[in-house]
Amino acid sequence: MSAIIDVRHVNKAFGGLRVINDCSIRVEQGSITGLIGPNGAGKSTLFNIIAGALPLDSGQVFLDGEEITNRPANELFHKGLLRTFQIAHEFSQLTALENLMMVPPNQAGESLFGAWFRPARVRQEEAQVRQKALEVIDFVGLGHVRNELAGNLSGGQKKLLELGRTMMVDARVVLLDEIAAGVNRTLLGDLVTNIERLNRELGYTFLVIEHDMDMIARLCDPVIVLAEGSVMVQGSIEEIQNDPAVIDAYFGAQP
Ligand SMILES: Nc1ncnc2c1ncn2[C@@H]1O[C@H](COP(=O)(O)OP(=O)(O)OP(=O)(O)O)[C@@H](O)[C@H]1O
């Protein structure tokens, strides 16, 4: 296997607080890799560094062999490195289907020039985008609420919609930050199933930060444990759960 994300010796401090300490991780192509660790271990900071949302102090990040250190998030988006975002306030007034249709970058219809000079092409592209959005919304199990305003969807349905938005572009790697938080068990089952299908059927690689250990256990292999900004241990969920250092630092030593 080859690493689609390769983080090498990254350091990051906020003021005097060193949050990421000589941290190196590899996310193998086609894997669903979990990233866990105690509160404050640096998981979100590392995510933000990989996603281009936060500059690092030193070290390097590679995407499929190409260095992407400190590249902006929109450039990484075009390269297929995506993270899910909460539905922005202004998008909550659009329907679920419209939210999906807003995603594709570089639509000819977005440019006045394109709309004026190439109306037939614009209409054709819009029809294609709509068709894709209809397929995606069925895929994520939200076909029955496609005309609901996104702001009226339940927390779990919004998470499914966020996942659906990654399918509107050619994603290669998706970073999921605590996607299970606040989602009921039934919808969580749908989310897990959809993540597995995206991985199996479309070849998505996932890097997943999650506090929900059931979800990590069902979904992720390998699991990376981060503590104080560096990798404590990496392995299968069974290996992690039986590692004395992890039990001590993360799960809490049994009395
Ligand atoms: N923008 C910031 N400015 C200053 N300190 C920050 C900033 N972002 C994070 N930190 C600090 O960095 C440390 C790591 O935070 P981070 O959010 O990366 O941890 P985490 O592992 O994701 O934690 P949690 O599981 O609680 O979400 C914390 O001590 C946090 O207070």
TrEMBL record:
| Residue stretches making up the ABC transporter domain | 5-253
Query: Which InterPro entries does UniProt cross-reference here?
Result: AAA+_ATPase (IPR003593), ABC_AA/LPS_Transport (IPR051120), ABC_transporter-like_ATP-bd (IPR003439), ABC_transporter-like_CS (IPR017871), BCA_ABC_TP_C (IPR032823), P-loop_NTPase (IPR027417)
Looking at the UniProt entry, the stretches that span the membrane are none
- GO MF term list: ATP binding; ATP hydrolysis activity
Q: Does the keyword Nucleotide-binding apply?
A: yes
The GO cellular component terms are:
plasma membrane
Q: Which UniProt keywords apply?
A: ATP-binding, Nucleotide-binding, Transport
Q: Which domain of life is it from?
A: Bacteria
The protein here is known as ABC transporter ATP-binding protein
Q: Which organism is it from?
A: Bisbaumannia pacifica
Q: What is the lineage of its organism?
A: Bacteria, Pseudomonadati, Pseudomonadota, Gammaproteobacteria, Oceanospirillales
